[in-house]
Amino acid sequence: GLTRPLLGFSWRNYSVKYDNITPKINEKIGRNIFLKPNHPINIIKTLVEQHFLKSQPDFKVFDSFHPKVSTKQNFDDLLIPLDHVSRGPSDTYYYDENTVLRTHTTAHQVHLIKDGHKAFLVTGDVYRRDEIDATHYPVFHQMDGVKVFKQGDQKDSGTETLEKHVELELKKDLEGVVRAIFGADSQIRWNVEYFPFTDPSFELEVYFNDHWMEVLGCGVIRSEILKNTGYDTSEYVGYAFGIGLERLAMKVFEIPDIRLFWSQDNRFLSQFKNGEFTKFKSYSKYPACYKDISFWTPSEYNDNSFYELVRDVAGDLVETVKIVDEFKHPKTQRVSKCFRINYRSMDRSLSNEEVDQLQWVVRERVAKELMVELR
Ligand code: PHE
Fold first, then answer.
1. Is the ipTM of this complex over 0.95?
2. Does the keyword ATP-binding apply (predicted)?
3. Could you identify the atom of ligand 1 that is nearest to the CA of residue 145?
4. Rounded-to-integer distance, Cα 16 and Cα 6, Å
5. Atom of ligand 1 nearest to the CA of 103
6. Inter-CA distances, 144 with 110, 261, 270, 375, Å
7. 95-145, pLDDT tens digit by residue?
8. What's the CA gap between 97 and 152, in Å, rounded?
9. Which residue, by CA, sits nearest to atom 7 of ligand 1?
């Protein structure tokens, strides 16, 4: 069973009930842009896979699991606590109480290990309800990797314990991946992280364009998880990692807006070729048009539902949604919010009428479906 989210919940509020997959999200399932040759996401995917297979040909590659998974696969099997925020329908897309769109490709870790796989990469589209800006999109792509080691594997490396050996192999393998992408002399550093399914956990950062950038999360698989898959944990230890592919591709190809990955415009698609790291050349930036909207929020309101609704109305014509003002009425304690919606198409100029029409629909639907009071 799933606990109700701690924050407000209302069956009347369509966007926080356990059936919150909008048509715009549904359209994305099966598009499989990550499998299309010469697509920037596919270029990164292929590069990482080939990097692993070159030195470790026993790695199995999976990339055709459907994104619809059980809450058991996505959360329970990975020891994610029942009250973890990521489980709430304000953060996750639900088909029903027990079925979600995967929020990470780690959802496939346990069933693949149970099936006997000891080393694998699994890539796919993942889904999260989130804010709207140049680096956030409700669908993105991840590659997870797993390798299970056995007592004795550490012998030639001169490392004392298998656990330590696994941690060193993990770091060595991932440093290799990052150097294959960013160059042999790139500066990298390890930070300690926290994930419910690994212990210890780390994140890897690379120094790129004057900034430290987080590129992946990883760690030693918690022994409880291996035990649950049938392994004798005195004999076996595994590593796991998860890489966000958009984040890497945006840096490597200098792609300025995450919506571009979904573009079907040849001026975008024709610029990339498998095996090549060409920099994206902007073909033209069309004018932006912003509109503000202000409303009083009811108690069961959440921002992600508002963002979702804006996406449902405007799709990829919305570039950013920013909160520009927020205040609490001293007497009624009601909260008022003002958002600025920035409309801009990636491949054409929008007319004023078109934007006004979109904004009008947003206003109407927001009032009706989120039950806010427009100001
Ligand atoms: N699933 C984690 C995420 O989405 C990444 C991760 C995968 C971390 C595997 C550790 C091990 O952030």
1. yes
2. yes
3. 9
4. 12
5. 4
6. 12, 20, 28, 46
7. 999 999 999 999 999 999 999 999 999 999 999 999 999 999 999 999 999
8. 44
9. 242
